[in-house]
Amino acid sequence: MTLTALSLTAVAASSDKSKSPTAISKPAKPITEWTCADYLDLQENYQPYAIGWATAYSKSGKPEDTAFDVQGIETIKPTLLEYCNRNLQASFWDKVKAEFKKYI
């Protein structure tokens, strides 16, 4: 599980095209602390991974048993994009969890 967490952190950190991954001096914040702006800063092809990660982990970072698949991620992605574009400082993790609960 730790490798996956580090991988997503690296993805989030490397989404800023002005920085190289080696130039980053501190680790990115955990996904549970992301704002919608952090999510929107990801390259578009990494956004579904962030959604999947957020649905699979609790606020404390512990894995949760979920059956949310690619279709589920694609179902809530447009809602998340619309919401996040209007609410840049809102909690990305909280919105993902709220949308996730509608579909399980």
From TrEMBL:
It holds the Pfam family HdeA. Keywords: Chaperone, Periplasm, Signal. Signal peptide: none annotated. The keyword Transferase does not apply. InterPro entries: HdeA/HdeB_sf, HdeA_sf, HNS-dep_expression_A/B. One of its GO terms (biological process) is cellular response to acidic pH. NCBIfam families: PRK10208.1. This is HdeA/HdeB family protein. It comes from Capitella teleta.
